[in-house]
Amino acid sequence: MTLRPLLILTATAVLAASAAAQEQVYLRRFADSVAVRIGELGHERMLYYFSPTAYLSVGDELEQEGGAHSEVLLSAGGRVELTGPAHMSVEALDGAGDTLRFTTLSRLAVVAGDRVLNLELPGGIRCEMQETRIDMHIELGRLRIRNTGALPVTIHGMVDLESKPARAQAEGADGVAEITAFEIGRGEEVRIPYFGDVDEVKGRMRTRWNRKAIWHDKRSTVEAQGDRVRVGTQDTGAELSLAGVATRLPPNSGLVVTDRSRRMGGANAEDDKGR
Length: 275
Hints:
This protein is mainly β. Helices cover 9% and strands 51% of the residues. It folds into two domains: 21-193, Jelly Rolls, CATH 2.60.120; 200-271, no CATH class. The strands form four sheets. It has a ten-stranded mixed beta sheet, with no helix packed on it. Strands 4-1-6-7-10-13-14-18 form an eight-stranded antiparallel beta sheet, with no helix packed on it. It has a five-stranded antiparallel beta sheet with strand order 19-20-21-24-25, with no helix packed on it. Strand 16 and strand 17 form a beta hairpin. The termini are far apart.
């Protein structure tokens, strides 16, 4: 008679743990090239207008290029809107807080709900927020972050601000302050010097070519020259993605990609996709 309640409690605990382990975020593509990288094997797929949605778990990634526009919905009312080139990975999803890592970004509009949301940004910067909203974008070599919500946002990291908020906690010597943590209140903003994007993520390397990102593993060679890029593989083959479009190369093979937009010319030529 005493075993049945115990079994029910055990089954309930297992189901709760399984649900927590499988927590996901919902992604929707609105425009242009948006790709996702799913699972331990890193399988990539493009999101098209006829199939614009995907679910991301911890370890999964999103990559978009050009004028791409997408939205990520999290538990407890969290939301991230991405515009322009971006590379995001899901680092943590649990009751203690969600963590999203951005190795590349252009413009973000972020809303945090009841759960703490951590944003890991290039340069070792981390934003911690809850029940508030921030807008951020890259502007002339600066990462500009503005609190458009009601509650303060805490920013962590060793950064050199152009204007240091009064509530900053600073460490340093000889009058040179290194900011470790500070808050920005409602309507306040900071401008942090932007030192570029990360060039290696989870064993993959990134090569810039004509304002496009080529992600490839270390088994491949990439040579970018003008309007052409050559990709070569070794005995094991390789995987790569160009502007969010993934492909797999067989062993001992090569690929040449030509950027037609540079040959065509025009004011907007560099913003077009190469083929």
